[in-house]
Write a structure and sequence with these properties.
By secondary structure, the chain is of the alpha/beta class. The protein has two domains: 212 residues, 3-Layer(aba) Sandwich (D-Maltodextrin-Binding Protein, domain 2); 109 residues, Periplasmic binding protein-like II (D-Maltodextrin-Binding Protein, domain 2, 3-Layer(aba) Sandwich). The chain is built from twelve helices and ten strands. The strands form two sheets. The protein has a five-stranded mixed β-sheet with strand order 2-1-3-10-4.
Length: 357
């Protein structure tokens, strides 16, 4: 069942994302105010853990989720008597690992790192697991905006305006690389942008970050949808250039890059967020211990420096368990409302065209 079928069967209440954006902006300076924490505790409940904790990463090596997970594991291991076995499980735009995770015991020895794509997949009916109910969020540790990137030396366009002119003159010629599926954050943001500004590109998903980035660098695609922290080394080398930011206002670090609203696309953009989870049913004492551990990892100097290098300090990125559940619930409602709006727009176009297929 795809997202259109879900929306036809079950129309959701339409809720604005402005409450989410306001909350994000209100805490934008909080990260800088963190005091470096002491270790959470010498040991967990009843000697937990007495063996390495498996940490599933739903995407390939080198991407944002992989960098985040390995840095968090290293940060925790530096202050806690815990060992992590980080395992990459790419496939199906992050969904392939979920059945394997759900088959593991609810004992705290398996943690999954996942992103907002799990939330949108649930909202669209692609997976049955609700990350706010079937999983227990330990912490959200990155919340960020997305951007569109071109090659730094592309002779066809050098900024948003020249790109848009080219895209309008050559519909469906340009190809954008992302990691996505129908109804994901990447595709929804792009589809709404295209509809608002009257251009069309083709979207191609790459599960492995290295392949995604090289596709742009070597000219196999023309555009990349990504978050700035994931491609920071290519920005520093000028191999990639941002031409558009999906956010309500221009971040200081990208003050010369227009936002989607600046160029006339009047919609609330969807954000990327990354967090860590255990399965529902895990012992509450173990959950509380792991919450403390991941917060200590987040507050560590090493992790704070990592987030700053990845532009993750521009938005308040930390959410505890209850705050994460609230973020997930709000985001599910936001996606469902967005799917409903998109379905309405498609139906309106169909009606205008005389109902012909």
């Amino acid at each position: 069942m795809n997202w259109v079928e879900v929306m036809v069967q079950n129309r959701p209440d339409v809720t604005s994302v402005k409450s989410v954006i306001s909350r994000v902006l209100a805490g934008s300076l909080l990260t800088a105010a963190f005091v470096m924490s002491e270790p959470a505790s010498a040991a967990g409940p009843d000697g937990f853990p007495d063996r390495p904790i498996t940490l599933f990463v739903p995407y390939g090596e080198g991407g944002g989720s992989d960098q985040l997970s390995r840095t968090m594991a290293e940060s925790i291991q530096a202050i806690e008597p815990i060992a992590f076995d980080v395992q990459n499980r790419p496939g199906q735009a992050g969904q392939k690992v979920i059945p394997e995770f759900m088959e593991t015991p609810s004992d705290g020895y398996t943690v999954i790192q996942h992103i907002d794509d799990a939330v949108s997949a649930y909202a669209a009916g692609s997976i049955p697991e609700n990350p706010a109910e079937d999983w227990i969020p330990l912490a959200m540790v990155q919340i960020t905006f997305s951007q569109l990137y071109i090659r730094g030396d592309d002779p066809r366009f050098s900024d948003w305006n020249s790109f848009l002119d080219y895209a309008r003159a050559n519909p469906n010629e340009l190809v954008i690389a992302n990691v996505s599926y129908d109804g994901s954050m990447e595709r929804v943001n792009m589809q709404r942008l295209e509809r608002a500004l009257g251009f069309e590109v083709r979207q191609v998903s790459f599960d492995k970050p290295k392949e995604r980035y090289e596709a742009l660098l070597y000219g196999r695609v023309d555009l990349l949808f990504e978050q700035p922290g994931d491609v920071s080394k290519y920005l520093d080398s000028s191999e990639m250039k941002p031409i558009l930011t999906f956010f309500s206002e221009r971040p200081d670090a990208f003050a010369d890059v227009p936002t989607h609203r600046d160029v006339g696309a009047d919609f609330d953009s969807l954000l990327r967020f990354r967090g860590f989870y255990v399965k529902d049913g895990t012992d509450p004492d173990i959950v509380s211990y792991l919450e403390d551990v991941f917060r200590a990892g987040f507050e560590s100097q090493a992790f704070q420096e990592f987030n700053r290098k990845k532009y993750m300090h521009l938005i308040d990125s930390y959410r505890d368990r209850e705050e994460s559940i609230g973020l997930i619930d709000e985001t599910v409602t936001q996606y469902q409302a967005t799917y409903q709006d998109m379905l309405y727009e498609v139906l309106q176009d169909y009606i205008k065209e005389g109902g012909e297929s």
